Fold this sequence. Notes:
The chain has 15 helices and 17 strands. The protein is of the alpha/beta class and about 525 residues long. The chain has 3 domains: about 5-140, Response regulator (Rossmann fold), CATH 3.40.50; about 145-245, PAS domain (Beta-Lactamase, 2-Layer Sandwich), CATH 3.30.450.20; about 250-510, Heat Shock Protein 90. The chain starts with a strand and ends in a 5-residue tail after the last strand.
Amino acid sequence: MPVKVLLIEKNEDHGILINSVFLRYGNRYRLTIVPDIEIARKYAESSDIIISNLYLDDGSPLDLLKDPYIYKNVPVIVLESFVDQETVVTLIKSGVLDYVNKSADMFESLPEKTDRFLELSNLRKDRNAIAERQNKLSTAIYHSSETIVITDIKGIIEFVNPAFERTTGYSAGEVLGMPVSVLKSGQHDRAFYDDLWKTILAGKPWKGHFINKKKNGDVYEEDASVSPVFDESGNIINFVALKRDISDMIRIENQLRHAQKMEGIGTLAAGIAHEINTPLQYISDNTLFIKDSFKKISDFYSNIKKSAESGSENKIAVGTDLEYLMNEIPEALEESMNGIRIVRKIVTAMKTFSHPGLKTMQKADINDAITSTVTITKNVWKYIADVETCPAENLPEITCHIGDINQVILNMITNSCDAISERKGEEKGLIKISTSFDEAFIYITIEDNGAGIPAELKEKIFQPFFTTKQIGKGTGQGLALSYDIIVNKHNGGIKVDSEHGKGTVFTIKLPIENNE
Length: 516
């Protein structure tokens, strides 16, 4: 495209002479000549450069520079026969790019000067843009609520923003020149930091979760990303860490998780009491029967003993059906032992389900977790559905927080029961729970033939507090917390396949080996 040059020249001869010079360059330039400022305003903003006399009948080019767009984007060159040095300085300070003294030689070289002026103007624009970006970046860094730390390649702190000071309690002056390990809490092992340094020294960004320590000794948690900074040769010169304090969020999540667990335990409590009460009832009844029977047998034995001691040959009147007691007592004992086994199974399952929460992950058997959760939820599902389990043989133990995994399985069983209850009709439903595995992951599949999930709601089911249940039928946190436990806490995955009116399949993927 041609360079659009606006020439403000009241001397007609000078205008014709300058125009002839630009015409020698063909279509490279498009020159527009106007005699005064008023007309020039119509063309100024669409021009690439303005060349103007200083003294015009209706003003000066400085009037054009009052327009912010022209001041910033269109360079203005003053063309005049003579101007004193003090005036030139004033012009430059006012925004004029340069001053050119009129002469015949100058007219001949004006196209070349125009090119150089444009290059100079573009260079200034680039510098101003860079400075503006730097100012914006600096402002953003200083006003950011995220902690920003810049270190050298050895981890020595070179810069921290005010958010760092607010979060850690350290002032910038206290930590500049210190190793970033000043924040260590001692709750990460060496392998954790080895993985971090191995990643960033390889030129890759690292993302993870820190448990760090403030100046006052308080421990806090933050999500972080650490990225290398390269020079023009591709060498790493710095590391930039962007971190967000999530201590409050974790506390709220723990409260919600606790509330969800208490909701689940509340749901189970009555059912477990009922399941235990039934075998306890016939243990109690059988114990009373055996106690009464023992008294009758004891009386019978006493009569025999007395008769033997007296030498009497009279027949002993037996008011007790001894044969009946001899048959019934073993059955009562067996039934009681069976009841004890049922109670022990429920108590053991409850103990396994309520596995104490540990700060670190431990090896655990998912098949055992499913068995125990199915057992203690029996009163939740036994009137609604049959539960089939298909545990994979030789399923490897996985590194996990097993108490949280138990909670997820409980949530899934409860949701399946609710979905089956929503179907019309009284026919019992079916819940299938199976496990499988490959080299890196184990998979838990929970399938039901309940009401299914409408297509328009599938994307929302893992959102916090979203629920399709009636008021009082849950907090809407079960699936959201399950998603958080599987995806965020265990680096796994959870997906749902569902057809409205036909059923739902949840598939949970968990890594066999895991890191916090």
